[in-house]
Amino acid sequence: MEVQVIDDFLEYKTFKQLQELVMSSDLSWFFQPIVNNHESNELTCYFTHSLYNPNKPYVYSEHYHKFLGFWEALEIKSLMRMKLNLYPRVQEIEKHDLHRDYPFPHKGCVFSFNTCDGGTRFEDGTIVDSVENRAILFDAYELHGSLNTTNVKGRFNLNINYF
Question: How many other C-beta atoms are found inside a 10 Å radius of the C-beta of residue 4?
Fold first, then answer.
């Protein structure tokens, strides 16, 4: 599986504006009792803010328009889902179960808003660290999983599924 890591993905000013929003108290976060549908550890949890999800009948966040720059940067032809994730700080790093975002090949992007000791892991053992303004591009049908954080208040990222 080819994983592409791009540092300084967004122009600095754009990144700082989005980072300020995502890491502020002005954004509504929604509790998710499990990290993914395949999670075997029932004690894992995280928070999400759905920017776009056509499966929940056409959810558009009031903040969706602020993330439209990703369409051009990723050359998105068709968006499947765009959501923000917040993994709260824990005592020990948890490796969340590997999963596929959808049951068919498609593009995925995990974009980091802060630097921490969390990251994204892949079936071959590769771990890509969470570094602010870093994008990880990959086929989100391939098995992958998240790691939370122990050294900051939370790991903040954006997950995009698209063609």
Answer: 10
